[in-house]
Structures are given as structure tokens and as C-alpha cells.
Queue: 3 jobs
Job 1
Amino acid sequence: NLYSSEAITAQDLTALTFYKDGAKVFVSKASTSATDWVLTFPLERKVDYNDFSKFLSWVASMRVSQYVEENAADLKVYGLDTPKYVFEYTLGGKNYVLKLGIQKDSKYYAQMEGNPAVFTLDASTLNFVDMPILDLIENFVYIPTIYDVEKLVINMDGRTDTLLINANKEDTTKDSYSINGKKVEGDDKQTLFKRYYQAAIAIAGDKIDLEAKPSGTAVISLTYTLKQANANGEKNMTVDLIPTPDGYGFCLMMNGKYTGMVMGNRQLDKEEMGLRQTYKNLMDALK
């Protein structure tokens, strides 16, 4: 154990920066709680804790497999002069830098900054290090529950849909919905209405493009009106889709700010959760 206590857990971590082959992959920090983390580089985004926690759990629980050399004179022998991976982190209020070099016989050579000893770590426990950034973040642009929204306006394909929502969490018999002034009645039709809403909040990035410079008019715009203002005092939240120059799809904007994520055109026409398809299904049922 390289730490001062056996009681250290992932919840004692408050910051983590990860490098691969000398390049900074991400910078992250704990937000409002030990299980609520955000990336601050290469984009600002809340993490998907299920996958991101693999980094945190490993950092907190990793143990030396074997000490190799107490005072290494030549770090190049172990690949530690130019490490493959570097973890910089704050754990239990202390800052650490852990370097991983050459992998040999299912072990990585490693060294903790400030300690000249070289040791090995089990490589099989590090199968998460090449995970793409998209898998580490919440890629949904904005996902309010239907119970928190009183109105959703969707501008798409040259029309405007106004969805009025009164969803009751305690008693679904009190639910009431309408679209463009037409009341949606009956369980089947209300289910299709909810799927249209779910397709709206399912707008998500399928790749990251940090070089994109979104410009022009949004071809799809979604404006949510919340029942209660959020912690920032905002009651209206807007998601805009601006076409990419290459025709792939859309740059995803949140309240006028580029999220760093892009969504392909095909997402709109998915059979189950595509925004266009769920609209068509609802309209066919209301005829």
C-alpha cells in the first residue's frame, strides 16, 4: 500500500488528471459530492460515473505487486523517463503523481513521484485506460424529467410543436398533456406523447469534435420551460442543433454554448427513439 491508510477509498479523491504518451487526456474534479465529478478538459461536462469511477477506484485501491529497484539510476530501462501513463491526483488531501512505464509479463513498471523506488503493478487491472472520452461523460445534452417540465417547444422541419405537460409523479391518473392545442387522451396516445418527449431529451452526442466552430441558424431547436427555476435561477433551457459543414449531422448547443459534441443525422430517424419517428407515431395516433 503506497498510501498512509488502508481505509482510503475512491470517495477520498477530489481531483484527477490523466496523461497518455505525454499528452493530457483529461482533467477532472469532484463537484458537489464524492460521486459527482466533472471534466474541465478537454471539454466541460459531467462524467458518466459508472465508467469514470473505474479510474477512481483503481487509483484508490492499487497496490504494489513487487518492488524492483530501490534507487533506480536509469529510468529509461523501465520506460519511466517517458511514461506511457501518468496519473496526477489529490487523495485524502495529498497530491500524488504516479508514472507507468513499460509493460512486461502482464506488469507495468511504475514509480511514485518523490520516491525513487521502481515497482510493478498488475496490468490486468488497468483495462480501462484506453477508454474514449465520449464513454467517460454524460453525452445527453439535457435530460430533465417529465415531472420537472411544464412546456416544451420543438422547432423542426419548418414547424413548431408546443407540448404542454402536467405529469403527476404520485398519481398518473391526474396526468394531462396536449400538443399544439390538442389534448392527448387515452393511455396509448399518452404513451406516444411521452415517447416524443423522451426522444427530445435523448438528443446526445455520438462523437466529440473540439475543433468545430458552430455557426449559422439552428435547424432544430428545443426550449424547455421548467416548473421551478434550477439552482442557477434558470427556468428556460434551450438545446440547438446547428448543421456541421461536412453534412454529418449537428453541433449540439446548450443555452447558446457549444457542448463539444456532435450528433449524426441518423439519430433523428431511429425507429424507437428518433425525434422525427416518434413525432410521426404520435401524429398518426391523433388523426
Job 2
Amino acid sequence: MSRTKRVNKSKFRSGLEDKVIQDLKNRKVKFEYENIKIKYQKKPSIYTPDIQLSNGIIVEVKGYFDAEDRSKHLLIKAQHPEIDLRFVFQSANKKIHAKSTTTYADWCDKHGFLWADKLIPEEWIKEKK
């Protein structure tokens, strides 16, 4: 009896990350993937953002955005106001939990985070810092 292993051919953590990275490469955008570490106080902890654009904008790519992630990003924003952290969601209109009327996009708007759906907008890439 033979066993087959499922092999992840992508070096990225999710299909959405792979899609976003491929889009950046196709547009010949300069970026770094998981190249920086940001310390923040929770235990202490270290946060490794997904993407840093050449203009310094940090982009976190999220399919699922749970309460722990939301809490972590609020701590990071409070402790590092100099960081321009933005989100790309697989579905920005997804509810933060089943009984909530708040979407991922609503949460970002409420807490002052810029967000996009599916891909990094051209405006972010061209933005000067």
C-alpha cells in the first residue's frame, strides 16, 4: 500500500498570499516577503508582516481574520504608530463572527486601517512615503 503526501508547491502560507505575490510579480512591483520583525508587547511578541512594499507600506494578507489577530494588530498599531499597516482580504465583506453584523472592512474602517479586497491596489504601490 502506498501513501501519497500532499505537497505545498508554494512557499507562501496561503493561496491568497500566493495570488497576491504573483500579481505583484506580474506587475513588476518591488516588495519584500516576511523580511522584517516587529516587536510588540503582549508577552513580549514578534510580528512578521507578510509584505513590505518598496515605499514602506506593510500589507497583511488575510483570508481569515480572527479575534486574536484583530487584537494583535490593534496592539501593534498602538505601540508602533509610525508603521503604515494595511490589509488585503480574501473577502472584505465577511463577518468577523457568525452573530456579528461587522465585516472585516467595517472593523478596519472603525480602527483606522486601510484595506483592499483580493489584491493590492495600484494606488498603494504608487503612493509616495
Job 3
Amino acid sequence: MLQLFLAHGLGGRSDLPIPLGLAVRAAGAAVFVSFVALAFLWPEPRLRGAEAGRPLPAVLERVVDSPVTRTVLRVLVLALALFVVVVGLAGPDETEANIAPWLFHITFWVGLIPASLLLGAFWRYVNPLRLLHGGVARLSGSDPGEGLRRYPERLGYWPAAVSLAAFVWLELVAPARDEPYVVASFIAIYGLVHFIAGAVYGDTWFARGDGFEVYSSFIGRLSPFGRRGDGRLVVRNPLNGIDSVTPRAGLVAVVSVLIGSTAFDGLTRTRLWKDNVEATSIPLGTLGLLGCVLVVAATYVLAARLTARAGGDVPAGYYPGAFAASLIPIALGYAVAHYFSVFMLEGQRTLFLASDPFETGANLFGMARRRIDYALVSPDTIAYTQVGAIVVGHVLGVIAAHDRAVRLLPKGSTARGQFPMLVVMVVYTVTGVALLFGS
């Protein structure tokens, strides 16, 4: 069943090619050493946020920004989304034979990571809800950017946090999450809710409230390609992309949902959880997921508040939002660690099922009878990729947080002020590795 593979990395402790204790200590040490090195080698702010980047050729920018290119891609993605809903409702009943759950949970959700990391805000560019919203707006003679009401700034990214929380609950808690009709229903309901919200608040809603678009956009900040403040398409240092994130309400909530959900996924595979909690217990699963998200949020906010005590002219309440972007590389590292093996191995099933999506005996692409090649990626490669993703994500997070700290904190207080944030990041690192490979 698909639910056995959703969001999981390696099967357990035995797959790790190095001792678990050594992996945990090495990961924590890497983060600590990077902090010490930055304290000596990075005394002044170096990141330039939205101002940084070298413009790409004008002809490439014209192709990318062409309404025709954008519309064609959105039409194709809309057609694919409708196909998933139809095959989920009218296709084979068995999960193993129905392409809908595999396309949605693996090809789409996990595939957003490499697509956004390589291309930037990928889902914003191809989002079919923007196509539908823009089409209806033009037919009614209204401006797609304007809705019935102005989007309240105080909401910030909170709607996106709720959207992502709903999805990760489906992915990690709902017992029927891999059933084709559940996947089709979720896509239909999600699309309807956000389409209506877009009509009310204009297309700003998708940039703030569509969880998938916000998730893709945040990962896209670490892409070498992005937009400069003047709108030019540029190639840049990915850390400048992180530095360009504007602190808004709900930003901490979004990254807490992303990090907390992967922590919960690891927790559910520990012996402690398996021996004491029924796998189908929705109340305990929901409380566990919520608890992990709240722990991440609380420890981070506490560290940010303690950092504020180092001084500076910025109000203490600004610090959690100001440093929240440094959690994006950490969330990305956890996502790669938890999804890499699933994408590389179970993701093959999408290609096979595409040859006969309605189980009619067709073999459209000549792959209907293929079987998953579990030797495609070795266990050692998976394990090293997982540990490496967590460590690299945290190191990038430390760099982003350090640059922001030397900008906000008084000289002479930078190292001391960052210490609470360092402690939290080290704890996240060792806990992430331990949960990923623990048993």
C-alpha cells in the first residue's frame, strides 16, 4: 500500500551504513563548527537579498515571461489535475493499480522539491488555479489582481499554513490517505476552496494562502534562478534568495508545519510509537502531529526571543519573523531526507501506471508490465543523501541566520546573541537524524 511508503526514508536503523550515534554526533558537530567559523570569518552582512543577481539573457527572459508560455503550461497542468481526479474516481479501486495516489503523493508533492529547487517558484508559474481565476476574471471584466475584498495583511501566510497542515494530516494521519477516491476528493475540495478564496481576495490569495504555491515558492528561494527586486530574471547565490524573504505573519507557522510534520513522520516509525499507539488512531495521530508542530514553533520562537535580548534597535517581536527564513533550508533538508528514496524508488510506479491508467489492458508507453527497480539507488547512497541533506540544510540555515544576526545585533553581541538559535538548530539536527534512522 502507498501509505507504507508515504514520506518515509529508509526503513529503519539497520539501513544506516555508519553507527547511529556517530551520525548524530557528526551532524551536530558540523552545525556547531560552522557557527564557530562564521563568527570569525563573517563579521559583516554579505547577503543582498532581492538586490543580488546577474540578469539572464533577454531572449530567455522573454520566453519565460511570455503569457503564451505560461498559459500553455497551466493548461497542461490543469488537464493533468483533472485527469487525476477522474482516474481517482472512475479508475481502478486498488491503490496499487490506480495512478492517482502515486501522481499526487509522490510525483506532485515530492516532485515539487527538485522542480522548485532547480527552477524557482515553479508552482506559482504553472498553478492551474491562477489560470481558472484569471479566465473568470477576464470573462467578468474584472482585474485578476483585485477580488471582492482586499487581502488582509494581518493574515500573512496563515492560510498557507492551514492548507499545508491539512495536507500533511491527510498524508501522515488519515487512515485512507492512499485510497484513490480520497485523493480525488481532496484535490477537488482543495481546488474549489482556493478558487473561491481567490475570487474573494484576488490573486494575492494564491501567493499567501495556497499551501502548495507557498511551499514551492519558499523552496524556490534556494534556487540559483530567481527574480531581482526590479523584476529581472537572474542567476544568483541561493542564500540571497533566502535573504529576500519578507517577514510576514504566518511565516513561522508555515516552516513549523513543514519541519514538525517530518519530525512526526520519524516519530511514528520509532519503537516507542509503534508499541504504544494504534496505527489507525486518528485522535492520537492528530495530537502527535500537532504536538510536533507546536514544539518546533515554541522552541524556535523562544530562541528568537532570547536572541533579541542581545540588544539592538529592533523590537523583540520582530525577531521570530526576521529569522524564520533561516528555517527554510532546514525544512528543505528534512524534506529531501524523508522523500528521496520514495521519489527514486516508488516514484517509478507512476511511469508504469501511466501506460494503463484505467486498467483496460492498454500499454501506451510500453511500461505497463515493468516492475520497480529497487537496485536503482543503493541503501548506502540513500543513507548518505539523507544525513547529508539534514546537515547541509542546517548549515545553510546557520549561515542565513548569522548574516541576519550581524545585521540586527550590536557589534560584540553577535556570537552571544546567536547562541540560543545555535542550540535550537543543533537540537533540530541531532533529533532529525535520530528520528530518521532510529527504531
